[in-house]
Fold this sequence. Notes:
It comes from Chitinophaga cymbidii. Keywords: Transferase. The chain is α/β, with parallel strands linked by helices. It has one domain (8-115, 148-215): 3-Layer(aba) Sandwich (Glutaconate Coenzyme A-transferase), CATH 3.40.1080.10. 23% of the residues lie in helices and 27% in strands. The protein has six helices and eleven strands. It has helices spanning 8-11, 33-42, 61-66, 82-90, 100-112, 172-181; strands spanning 20-23, 47-50, 70-75, 94-97, 116-119, 133-136, 139-145, 149-160, 165-166, 182-193, 212-215. The strands form two sheets. Strands 1, 2, 3, 4, 8, 9, 10 and 11 form an eight-stranded mixed sheet that branches. The longest helix has 13 residues, at 100-112. The protein is globular. The termini are far apart.
Amino acid sequence: MKKVVANADAAVADxxxxxxxxxxxxxxxxxxxxxxxxxxxxxxxxxxCISNNAGxxxxxxxxxxxxxxxxxxxSSYVGENAEFERQLLSGELEVDLIPQGTLATxxxxxGMGIPAFFTPAGYGTEIAExxxxxxxxxxxxxxxxxxxxxxxxxxxxxxxxxxxLVFRKTTRNFSTSMAKAGNITIVEVEHLVQPGELDPxxxxxxxIYVHRIFQxxxxxxxxxxxxxxx
Length: 230
């Protein structure tokens, strides 16, 4: 199976309006910058985006929010994006806020083929509205469903032409699980190498989960909130 595509535009060419996307990264670290820019150029709309965060106003998912291409956000942390806040308060954007551990586990369960699980996180809050609850050993839990996506868009540090991936540090946080939870997994890499160049013991995601891969470029690697000590 040939997995290498020419660029981001080719990789996302068949993503339709109304698709559900998972986008890897943590804050602005390890986000699929090239794929997001390609989606902006493509003009696809009515997207449901599953991501730990919503980017910032002029970068990451903030670019798709600016162009009103996102219909619904499913996220954990959204505090760095003023446009997100404006669209939420005005009713232009559907938002499903999910506790971070629950979000990570829902994605992980999808990749493992487990349809649902119980967690105490969110019990007794608005998160619990409409969800099944059970008591185990005197403690109350919510049932949460596994979270799947039509496409998973990820960025890795290195990948080979067979789709084997190596991530660096924080960039692994959601991406390794998302790779297994998307029907189609698309990966951009900083370094695309040939089979045999990656140490098998260092591979974080085996190529069986990856459907398309390409060499990315022009990475900005922004810092979401720079804090300095005087």
